[in-house]
Write a structure and sequence with these properties.
mainly beta, 19 strands, Glucose Oxidase, domain 1, five-stranded mixed β-sheet, 2 domains, Immunoglobulin-like, about 300 residues
Length: about 300
Amino acid sequence: MKLAAEGSTSPVIGTLGTITSARPGDVLVIDHGGTMDVNSWGGVATFTAVHYGIVGVIIDGVTRDIDEMKTQEFPVFGKGIIQQSIRGRCSFAGHRVEVQLGGVRVRPPFTAPHFGAQVECSNSGGTVLSDILPAGSGNLLLQFQVSSKAVRDNSVDPATNPSFYSLPSTNVAPRIIRTFKFDRLNGQWSVNGQFMDCNEFRFTVSQNSSEQWLLTNLTGDWTHPIHIHLEEHQILTRNGLPPSLAVEHARKDVTQLHPNERVQLFFRFRDWVGKYPIHCHNVVHEDHAMMALWHVVANGGDNINVP
């Protein structure tokens, strides 16, 4: 929408017509030429915009009645606040036309990408926070810089139950099966009866190999969400049976290990070598030593079944 200093069309009637022609979800952009002595928006317009489903307003100018906007939880971004009425002080110059905000052109119907634009969020007082200030004295500011090239939108509707890829086969003989017992020990939390040692790597995995890990929690009093870094895994069984939840038929990096459970996992170690942890994601357990280090090497790998 555009407002001009001179003309014969009422800005009130023009603003009302713009609002009533909007579609739910629209954002109204108002070009008032940066005018600071007459408001471009107010409480009545806000209530009407909410009724018609408009979700926000951006103004190259100022607003009034911000309490009404806060009550309606309706975002309005502009250059400031002034109570001076719009009536008889400017003219409506059209809507669904090209406008400018701070020198940036905005073209309707706003469906084509507009690269090079910059959108800034001001504070609740309407102050634009675009000035560069000395280090340590800056304002809170959210800025989006649209700088990429247009890309194809390949998103799909989840309701159509799309299929993207099949999970890798787990019908592979493991190089080794390792067992991990997660338990409480001497007031702390342990993996296979040992506490975390930052200087010790408990076992070594060979790159381009597959392994099965058996996680056990036999205490009956705690659940341990076990997080294994690097490679995602697949759950083969819980207490000897295939997982019953659909969410567990997927690649995972954290597996819930419930009381009195044995969970068997399948890994395929592919591209990466290096040093990684396995730990309980319960922060108290993790911070009290329920963690172990291991690493992947290009050639080799040990045969430690209970690290």
